[in-house]
Specification:
Elements lengths: L3 H11 L3 H9 L6 H13 L3 E4 L6 H10 L5 E5 L6 H5 E6 L4 E6 L6 E5 L6 H13 L1 E4 L2 E4 L5 E6 L12 H4 L4 E4 L5 H17 L17 H11 L6 H15 L13 E3 L3 H17 L7 H12 L4 E2 L1 H5 L4 H11 L4
Parallel strand pairs: 1-8, 1-9, 2-5, 5-8
Antiparallel strand pairs: 3-4, 6-7, 10-11
Helix pairs in contact: 3-4, 3-11, 10-11, 11-12, 12-14
């Protein structure tokens, strides 16, 4: 019999380092708690995260700040239409002195990789990134190199500007564990952002070179890997496992789940990869909340981020301007909660 109390005590001990990370991020980023929490979940599980929002919502700033709190290697790739796969993974260079070829590693060889404006990259670059995301390895020339854990890709995407962009293929989008929609801040948050950033831009650093926006390293890659093993012990009841499967299968056959009106709205539902991601993300969500067990609320909280990019709408749904967000919301309302 599983000792939930012992697991809960272990999780509370092992998740203690999460709060200092969040405190450091809040020195720089105002609000956007849901986005920060989802990126932390990605860090803990090794799941890749796609952030989508209009420019100026602190997507890149949040990722940069969060990475500074972890003593891990970090690289940022600004995606552009003229980017080549070699610019991401590396290439083979000929040494005239020795007469030999040697591999030059690209920026993908890091623990945390920020792919900024990923939809600006052509298909060849996206496919090179796909191998790294899915297989955790990179091929340069005829040699394959393993990527050292922890490894995670955090990508940003601008949904407004379409000129000079290449929409991500469904196969690649599916590799992201979470697709997070970033919204505008509240009035109070925007006031705080304005004051904090305007002072920083105008006043600059202090006399000693420091800044109120400086963050400390408060976590290590070893802590992230240990936390990942702990998340594997977070208790999930059989009924919640059934609930996850019911939600995911309802995206494939909504009529069978009692949602006949959605049958003509969904062309393709979520794959079993969604069930795995929802299980892992729900456990990580409980871990971030310092709990050693998963509740249905964990599944419902993280569910939209796991499913919104895995549901392909029909032309009818697109014509009626019914978003995948609305479809996911309707499914969670209809599926019985244990």
């Amino acid at each position: 019999m599983t000792d939930v109390r012992a697991i809960n005590d272990m999780v509370q001990r092992e998740s203690a380092f999460i709060d200092p990370i969040l405190q450091e991020v809040r020195k720089v980023v105002v609000g956007q708690d849901a986005m920060v929490e989802r990126i932390v979940i990605g860090l803990l599980t090794g799941g890749h995260v796609l952030l989508e929002g209009v420019p100026g919502l602190a997507k890149t700033l949040t990722v940069n700040t969060l990475c500074k709190t972890v003593a891990a290697t970090f690289s940022r790739i600004q995606f552009t239409p003229d980017l080549l796969p070699a610019d991401v993974v590396g290439t083979v260079i000929y040494n005239q002195k020795t007469g030999e070829f040697s591999a030059k590693s690209g920026p993908i060889f890091a623990n945390l990789v920020l792919a900024d404006e990923i939809n600006r990259a052509p298909a060849k670059v996206q496919s090179a990134l796909l191998e790294a995301m899915q297989e955790l390895q990179v091929t340069i020339g005829d040699t394959t190199y393993k990527l050292e854990p922890p490894f995670m890709v955090m990508a940003t995407q601008n949904p407004v500007e379409q000129e000079g962009t290449y929409p991500l293929a469904e196969a690649q989008v599916d590799r992201f564990m979470l697709h997070v929609k970033v919204d505008y801040p509240t009035v109070e948050e925007e006031r705080a952002i304005m004051e904090r950033m305007a002072d920083h831009l105008l006043l600059g650093p202090r006399a000693d070179g420091s800044s109120p926006l400086d963050v400390r390293q408060v976590a290590t890659p070893e802590q992230l890997l240990e936390a990942r093993r702990t998340i594997g012990h977070v208790y999930m009841d059989e009924k919640i496992k059934d609930y996850i499967v019911d939600v995911v299968t309802a995206t494939r056959n909504p009529e069978k789940a009692g949602m006949r009106e959605l049958q003509d709205m969904i062309a393709h539902g979520a794959s079993p990869r969604a069930s795995i991601a929802l299980n892992v993300a729900a456990r990580a969500h409980a871990f971030v909340k310092h709990r050693g067990y998963v509740t249905p609320e964990d599944v419902k909280a993280i569910g939209p981020d796991v499913l919104r990019h895995r549901i392909i709408r029909t032309y009818e749904a697109e014509a009626e301007e019914i978003s995948s967000e609305a479809l996911v919301r309707r499914i969670f309302e209809a599926v019985e909660v244990p």
